[in-house]
Amino acid sequence: MKICVYGAASPTIDVRYMKKVEEMGSEMVKRGHSLVFGGGGNGLMGAAARGVRAENGYIFGVVPQFFKDEDIEEICDFCDELVYTDSMRSRKQIMEDNAEAFIIVPGGIGTLEEFFEILTLKQLCRHNKPIAIYNLMNYYDDLSNTMEQAIKKNFIRASCKDLYYLTDNLEDMFGYLEAPADEHREVKELKDG
């Protein structure tokens, strides 16, 4: 399975996150999976790629050309395939199109935006790919609480909780990702409007 990992690019985050995501990358390959990611060499993007590389797994990176031209962030230099795009939008589209599942590890604005975009597309029944949030060191607890509040206040249907899986357990996360896909759902089951 080709798994897209969304996560932090920052080189200054706690090394405990790095170690856990490197272990996750290694486990992906041991289970027969490959990596699709944003092509970053630092942060948790770089950690995932290092973990995959340690097990000789396949790495597909996607980077906007302006990241290279403007030296915005370090680019992973050992991808098996590295595609440069003309925009962030085309980067995300290529990642989504090439992924069969998604893992969200801790990250910042870009990671949150990527998560909410693929979640919205799943809510609108544009895909039925599994989405897992790897809640390392309780990083996404507040996000989970925000989603619960939105459900309680009728901004989000409770059925949307079934569209993703939040866990801090690596084995459980891969079990979810590798399980048969849920039956196709109708948009009206998931969204008011």
Task: Describe it.
By secondary structure, the chain is an alpha/beta fold. The N and C termini lie far apart (34 Å). Strand 3 (59-64), helix 3 and strand 4 (81-85) form a beta-alpha-beta unit. Helix 1 (15-30) packs parallel to helix 2. The protein has helices at residues 15-30, 43-54, 65-69, 88-98, 109-123, 141-152, 170-178, 187-190; strands at residues 2-6, 34-37, 59-64, 81-85, 101-104, 131-134, 165-167. The chain has a seven-stranded parallel sheet with strand order 4-3-2-1-5-6-7, sandwiched between helices. It is built from eight helices and seven strands; from the N terminus they run E-H-E-H-E-H-E-H-E-H-E-H-E-H-H. Helices cover 44% and strands 16% of the residues.
Query: Structural class, judged by helices and strands?
Result: alpha/beta
* Assembly type: single chain
Mean pLDDT: 95
Helix content: 40-55%
Strand order of the largest sheet: 4-3-2-1-5-6-7
Shape: globular
Order of helices and strands: EHEHEHEHEHEHEHH
**Biggest sheet, in brief?**
7 strands, parallel
What is the rounded Rg?
16 Å
Instruction: Identify low-pLDDT runs.
Output: none
Tally of contiguous helical segments: 8
Task: Please give a handful of descriptors for the protein shown.
193 residues, alpha/beta, 44% helix
